[in-house]
Amino acid sequence: MATDLRLPTNAIVKPDKDRFLNEDNPFEAMMSRFDRAAELLDLEPGLYKVLRKPEKQIIVACPVMLDNGEIEVYTGIRVLYNTSRGPAKGGIRFDMQVNLDEVTALAAWMTWKCAVVNVPFGGAKGGVICDPLKMSVGELERLTRRYTAGIIATLGPDSDVPAPDVNTNERVMAWLMDTYSMHKGHTVTAVTTGKPVEMGGSLGRREATGRGCMLVTKEALAHLGMNVKGTTVAVQGFGNVGSVSAQLLAREGCKIIAISDRTGGWHNAAGIDVDDAINYVKQHKSLEGYGKGDPISNEDLLTLDVDVLLPAALENVITTKNAAKVRAKVICEGANGPTSAAADAILDEKGVFVIPDILANAGGVTVSYFEWVQDRGGYFWDEDTVNDRLRNIMVKGFRDVLGLSKQHKVNMRTAAYMVSISRVATVHRLRGIYA
User: Fold this and answer.
1) Which among 200, 227, 317, 407 has most CB atoms closer than 10 A?
2) Active-site residue set
3) Is residue 415 domain-resident?
4) The three-state (H, E, C) secondary structure of 121-159, written as one string
5) How many Cα atoms sit within 13 Å of 250 on the Cβ side?
6) Are β-strands 160-164 and 88-94 bridged in parallel, bridged antiparallel, or unpaired?
7) Pick from 233, 334, 238, 235: which is nearest to 286 by CA?
8) Last-in-domain residue among 360, 376, 408
9) Which residues fall within 8 angstroms of residue 81, CB to CB, at 6 or more apart?
């Protein structure tokens, strides 16, 4: 059934920079975008209420025996935002900044992200409040297994499928899968994605988010009539997403002139050898001391005169404080929520073409979907097949959003939310309300 994207008459509204009361609250930021898209879609009041609330918020205590014999109790959170289109999908992060507002916002983002590329998942997110850098491998394993046991009632290939996120990785997913499987009495590979390839992970999964960023950036440049060859790019964040995005864009002919991580960054107008920088980080764990360029702060990198800016690090790095200084023609949001809702209007006024996070970084969840499909079918694809199918989905997703953006004269972010919300709302209309 086709998605109904009809708009009410005279529905176009201009964003109001003064309507955002708390620029730093991720849930408020997400909801301000949701509200505008819902208004443009003329969403029914009942469905508006349904889609504005998370289905389930779980908080669990996770007592862990530390290596020194002491017991520490950590707090774990898991939020299932909406599962109307399929099992909940979303990462688990280990970080001291984890809180319920952030996790709920990220779960909502996952809902819209899956819908915008038409992957049959709902949205979820999870996290544990801890400092993993101060924990041993044994402590991290015990914490992962205790957290898994705490939320196990929601987990499962048909209900809730986690993945790695901030400070978690393939090994953490292996522990989670093993814990779940021990409770079930048999191996269940499809309970999580982002696993090692040797135990049911998908080829191409590690590079998927960065590859997706590269694909939609190329689509944006083509739409704007800009040649990929020689396009200048600055990348904030040189972790998995940022480094892979930079590497793949460089291979397409772009010139990467600035990169940064938590230690700061480097600017070289002649271009940075991304493969060399990646090898340096592998050896030294960060870009600190890299030296092949001029030092630049993360803040200054955001305002460089470049064709493409790719923020792939933290939330809320582009705000009302610096949005007017942004000089990039295109922003590809590799991170979740790098631009505050209030900054959107400023970027619109400057004519910056923003590829929103729910579209730009959807490559990861798309290949997670491929991994889930392969696990459930017990048949695995080669990497070329994974990459070809990812390209098809990301390009179609971009063109769906661009088409709606042009048709209704809204920016790409609003169009992406409209596509997503309409798809989720359509399923709710078809399913009805269980009572």
Assistant:
1) 200
2) 125
3) no
4) CEEEEEEEECCHHHCCHHHHHHHHHHHHHHCCCCCECCC
5) 21
6) parallel
7) 238
8) 360
9) 54, 55, 88, 104, 107, 108, 110, 111, 122, 123, 124, 125
Q: Please indicate, yes or no, whether residues 132 and 95 belong to a single structural domain of this protein.
A: yes
Indicate if 182 and 245 belong to the same structural domain.
no
Rounded Cα distance between 192 and 152, Å, is 12
**pLDDT digit string, tens, across residues 247-264:** 999 999 999 999 999 999
CA distance 110 to 113: 5
Residues 93 and 143 grouped into a single domain: yes
Burial 376-414 (b: 16+ CB within 10 A, else e): eeeebbeeeebbebbbebbeebbebbbebbeebebbbbb
- pLDDT per position as a tens digit, 301-356: 999 999 999 999 988 999 999 999 999 999 999 998 899 999 999 999 999 999 99
- Interatomic CA distance for residues 434 and 421, integer angstroms: 20
**141 and 221 part of one domain:** no
Distance CA 206, CA 67 (A): 31
Which amino acid, residue 220? Answer: A
413 assigned to some structural domain? no
